[in-house]
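Need tokens for this chain, all 373 residues.
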Amino acid sequence: MQELSDEKTKDSVGSNTPFTMTDDHSKVAQTMIPVSTCSEECLPGYRRASKPELQKCCFDCVPCSEGEISNETDSVLCHKCPEDQWPKEINQCVPKPIEFLSYKDDIMVHGVSVISVLFFLKSSMILGIFILFRDTPVVRANNQTLSFILLVSIMLSFLCVFLFLGHPTHVTCMLRQTSFGITFSVAISSILAKTIMVYMAFKTTKPGISQRKFIGVKITNCLVFLCSFLQVVLSISWLYTSPPFPESNTHLYPDRIILQCNEGSMLAFSILLGYMGLLTAVSFIVSFLARNLPDSFNEAKNITFSMLVVCSVWVAFIPAYMSVAGKNTVLVEIFAIMSSTVGILGCIFFPKCYIILVRPELNSKKSISRRKH
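Here are the structure tokens for all 373 residues:
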């Protein structure tokens, strides 16, 4: 009888044991957060967005906006990268690449440099030809000194292109616009003086006014000096009041930094270009009026074509300059500088070089007297 009671006691103990284990599991389950889609972790690159109609533990994982990142799990907010960095990925900021007209990486810089050097050498060769044949009629026509000044200013204009290339510095930013403005103003002033010389030469062919030739030379030389000096004054005033300076533009493009020259004062830059445009327009008008005057080796027609080229280039430059950004603005200005300078060189000096080198029989006093008769 006692053995049977012991077995019942063991059975009752065994039957109570499972009930005790189930109760422990329920207590553990009450301390755990239930797993659901509302409580999943937000990965880096996303942020939490709460759901007002549900519990605080429920939220959505929203990707960060463009230009922002989150590099933590369950981030509440996304943050922007520093100005010199950009989000290459949704969870990482990387440094922005720096962009400018570099001699190392930009093939356009190599092309522009080669073209500038070639035309500089051509200008030097023409200057050498004019010095070698300085006593011939075709060189002496319309004041050979003005031709030398014009050729030197053209050579310097080609060299000014290199101030627009490479890493912008304080020196290059201050010199690029002003140096070209002064040299190009000297060139246009020389062209204007040469055109006036055509008119003066026609007037001195009349009897009894031989002294006007000397007066005309003095007037033209003073004209070149005054027109160039005024541009020098404008440039110095610009550099003194609000000089250009290099800057890093981080807002133009989101993924790169543009190294450029800030012009300082756009009003001064506009006045500089406007003065050159005024000289060009006056030269074009005067040369157009003097194109048919009966003078030997009258270059007024060639000057008219050259000024037409210059006016066309710079009129097209204004909308092109305003419609591009970054280093393309510098390329547009370089194209305008080189195109206008090549137009002057080709229209005025190539025909004279053709007469000197290919048709020397036309470069003589007999040919001049035959033309007059």
